[in-house]
Amino acid sequence: MADPRHQKLAQVLIHYSLDVKPGDKILIASSELGAPLVREAYREAIRAGAYPATRVRLSGLREIALREGSEDQISHVSEMDRQEIEYYDAQLNILADANTKELSGVDPQRMVLAQKTRGPLMERFMERSAARELNWNLTLFPTQAHAQDAGMSLSDYEDFVFGAGLLDNDDPPAAWRGVHDEQQRIADFLSSHDEIHIVAPGTDLTYSVGGRKWINASGTRNFPDGEVFTGPIEDSASGTVRFSYPAVYAGNEVEDVRLRFEAGKVVEATAGRGQDFLLSMFDQDPGARFLGEVAFGLNYGIKQFTRNILFDEKIGGTMHMALGRSYPDTGGKNESSLHWDLISDLREGKAYADGELCYEGGRFII
Question: Whole-prediction pTM value?
Answer without folding.
Answer: 0.92
